[in-house]
Amino acid sequence: MLSSQGSGANPGARGTARPAPTNPHSPAKTSHPLQAAIIGGGPGGLYTAALLKRLAPDREVTVYERNAPDDTFGFGVVLSDETLGGIEHADPAVYDALKAHFVRWDDIDIVHRNTRHTSSGHRFAALGRRHLLEILHDRCRDLGVDLRLRTEAPPPDQLARIHDLVVAADGVHSATREAYRDVFRPHLTPHRCRYIWLAADFAFDSFRFEIAETEHGVMQLHGYPYAPDASTVIVEMREEVWRAAGFDELDEAESTARCAKIFADALGGRPLRSNKSAWTTFRTVVNERWSHGNIVLIGDAAHTAHFSIGSGTKLAVEDALALAACLAERPTLQEALSAYEEERRPVVASTQRAAKASLEWFEDLDRYLAQPPRQFAFNLLTRSRRVTHENLRLRDAGFTDSVEREFGCPPHTPPMFTPFRLRGLTLRNRVVVSPMDMYSATDGVPGDFHLVHLGARALGGAALVMTEMVCVSAEGRITPGCAGLYTGRQGEAWRRITDFVHDSAPGTAIGVQLGHSGRKGSTRLMWEGMDEPLPEGNWPLVAPSPLPYRPGGQIPSELTGAQLTDVREQFRAAAARAAGAGFDLLELHCAHGYLLSGFLSPLTNRRTDAYGGSLEGRLRFPLEVFDAVREVWPDERPMTVRISATDWAEGGTSAEEAVEIARAFAAHGADAIDVSTGQVVAGERPEFGRSYQTPYADRIRHEAGVPVIAVGAISSWDDVNSLVLAGRTDLCALARPHLYDPHWTLHAAAEQGYDGPGAAWPAPYRAGSRPPRTGRTDDPKPRLTLRGPGQDA
After folding, report:
1. Is the CB of residue 585 less than 8 Å from the CB of residue 509?
2. Which residue among 102, 204, 553, 672 is buried most deeply as judged by most CB within 10 Å?
3. How far apart, in whole angstroms, are the C-alpha atoms of residue 462 and residue 453?
4. What are phi and psi of 503, to 5 degrees?
5. Are strands 230-238 and 217-227 parallel, antiparallel or unpaired?
6. CB within 8 A of 27, min separation 6: which ones?
7. Which residues pair with 38 in a beta bridge?
8. Sheet harboring 291-292: ordered strands across?
């Protein structure tokens, strides 16, 4: 980590100052500041200084670092090919110096239960942190940067008055960030594992993950070489394991010796060494703003990402490259700093999402210990969702093939095209067309639009096509355009659609999702104002408790005992009609804040009778409805339940409760849980991102022991292959991709060169079973290219 700077002034370290601007935090008029101060002499700060000086040799650049030049923490630093490419183009001299010290390797070894699995082709480069700092010190001196080592930086407001630009590279404990906390608005999130940085005096021949199952709990080792005779070793474990093992009572030397003993096999019996090493808890740093006037944050001061997906140094160096480029490109400092943040923020956010997925995987490592050995290794490698099935296949086809064989994939069959059985229904692949409300029915009757919409997607290759939420009563509709199954005419209309699917898309199953809108009903069509009340013709709403969905919205009536009976019977009657209409699967909608979901969430269920209070009480009515539906639904046909595994709101359904909800439905006969999240309360704060809901499905699958359907921003066939093969889900439901491309599954098969029973093309479409040719896409140009004196542009 970058060193933390103090806030005390050091008058003798200021140098020659220019007259102060009238407003100390007014941006300079030009983005080519003549005087720049860097707070923090870690890699990010030093590299920023070198780039700024190289861009403008007449610029005065001063670096303040309170530590000595060789007083560094940590041991090795890993840099990616992308980061190294940026360094090479921006400053070949630094790249050449780094290259002389690189240790490179391709393999990742995963050792679990005395079995070692190796995956190749990963292309790592690392060097000692001390060497990195020496190289950057030398480069700064060569360029004329004023390095003030063993020197506390003056307070940031003082620096801002006498410099055009102040770069705060003062680490995770940034004093600059704290000085302007009300401006930067930082959020620091602690996590559940303790870890310690150590070193071994030999070089691992790979990046090594070793799992130790001790009497106190699970511990893991992350190790990699950074020199021909040295390796970084990080030991990590959950807080409760750390305490149970007594590490909280050991000093640095005792902890180091204890870790060496626990991981003696990985170390070959050799000792570990420390360097001011201490057990710590990782904290994710997020700032709402990265700049204030002429002060800007970079590296750990601005953001952190867990070490298990890469180096904080990597992010800091990339920040430096982007900041230098923006300063060179923009006419004013304010525009440059805004452009820097605009460029880097989405990249960092993506990295932090991946880091969160990775650190949570290690926090919950014991969840996966019983997986088959190769699947466990694949799961570990793909934990951040950045490394995928296809990516691993390109790197190491032999490893990926071995995982697929253990999983049970037929030869030359991607994981997504392996069959899956639910009760008496065998699905030919793992793709589900997710329920999507179309708001296009008339009096609850599905028409030609539904026939074409669902029929097209059934022809498109998915194993299971789901209807939108089909309402069990007129009062249970969301909008006037919602489909229903509360009349015989509606049942006959649905039969027309299921007959088409079974006749024209043999092998495709069609499922119905039954639900009741609850307090979210009597609203306009989505494109006329989602969740907005109807301008006229509203119908009364019912819910577990008299709470409107949105402030100022219609207040529902609290369901009485008699009304609960009526609603239960409406579900039962609709299920009987669904069976008669020929549906292959029935899903009970207990998610997204609709009626049954309203009972499950403590935010929407304030009842004081037997149907409220504890989770057991909140589950009572949804389970009664499930039982009523199961009684009339044919025994050989499967039933699933969609739940919101989190409300994304304080005081809402917890992940632990979601597991218990899933267990309860499974105990009553649910064949799978369709795991969605949110949409329960209007004030939710979802954490969107690629496959962002999958961790909830993963947890339910492993802890409740029930098959799951994962949903939520799963957009590529590579995602589906990765999630299924890693054991995070059994089926993947995709919505928007199927709106974009009704034949998404068939196209996924064509793009993977698969032509088998898991993706059967309808005879009239066979001519389109090969992907069309595409044009060339050129590689992006380097972000920043700087030429030295005397070099041609």
Report:
1. yes
2. 672
3. 14
4. -80, -40
5. antiparallel
6. 293, 294, 332, 333, 334, 337
7. 63, 167
8. 146-149, 60-65, 35-39, 165-168, 295-297, 291-292
**Cα 117 from Cα 23, distance rounded (Å):** 61
What per-residue string of b and e applies to 92-112 under the rule 16 or more CB within 10 Å gives b?
A: bbbbebbeebebebebbbbbb
pLDDT given at position 186: 97
How many angstroms separate the CA atoms of 298 and 140, rounded? 18
Q: How far is the C-alpha of 724 from the C-alpha of 740, rounded, in Å? A: 23
Whether 235 contacts 196, CB under 8 Å? yes
CA separation (Å) from 317 to 42, 87, 132, 337, 413?
10, 8, 12, 16, 41
Query: Which backbone phi and psi does 97 adopt, to 5 degrees?
Result: -65, -40
Q: Which amino acid is present at 474?
A: A
Active site residues: 594
Pairwise CA distance, residues 591 & 351, whole Å = 30
Distances (CA, A) of 186 to 284, 298, 334, 350, 499: 10, 13, 21, 18, 57
Task: Write the pLDDT tens digit of every residue in 496-507.
Answer: 999 999 999 999
Q: Token digits for 707?
A: 């098959």
Distance CA 46, CA 69 (A): 12
Q: Does the pLDDT value for residue 779 go beyond 70?
A: no
d(CA 488, CA 277): 73
Q: How far is CA 304 from CA 167, 173, 239, 276, 298, in A?
A: 17, 11, 20, 21, 10
Read out DSSP for 291-328?
Answer: EETTEEE-GGGTB---GGG--HHHHHHHHHHHHHHHHH
Burial degree of 700 (CB within 10 A; 0-12, 13-18, 19+): buried
- CA–CA gap between residue 467 and residue 478 (Å, rounded): 15
What pLDDT shows up at residue 315? 92
Helix (H) or strand (E) holding 468: strand 464-471
Rounded Cα gap, residues 669 and 338, in angstroms:
55
Whole-number Å distance between alpha carbons of 791 and 793 = 6
**DSSP H helix total and E strand total for the chain:** 26, 28
pLDDT computed for residue 294 by the predictor: 96
Decide: 305 and 315 in contact? Cβ < 8 Å: yes
**Residue keyed to tokens 């921006």:** 90
DSSP state of 367: G
| Average pLDDT value for residue range 229-244 | 97
Model confidence at 406, in pLDDT bands (50, 70, 90)?
A: very high
The owner of tokens 């009349």 is 487
Asked if 430 and 732 touch (Cβ cutoff 8 Å), the reply is yes
CA atoms within 13 A on the CB side of 452: 6
Q: Report residue 567 as tokens.
A: 């609603």
How high is the pLDDT of residue 9? 31
Three-state secondary structure call for residue 757: coil
- The 3-state secondary structure of 193-257 reads EEEEEEEECCCCCCEEEEEEEECCEEEEEEEEEEECCEEEEEEEEEHHHHHHCCHHHCCHHHHHH
Cβ(78)–Cβ(124) under 8 Å? yes
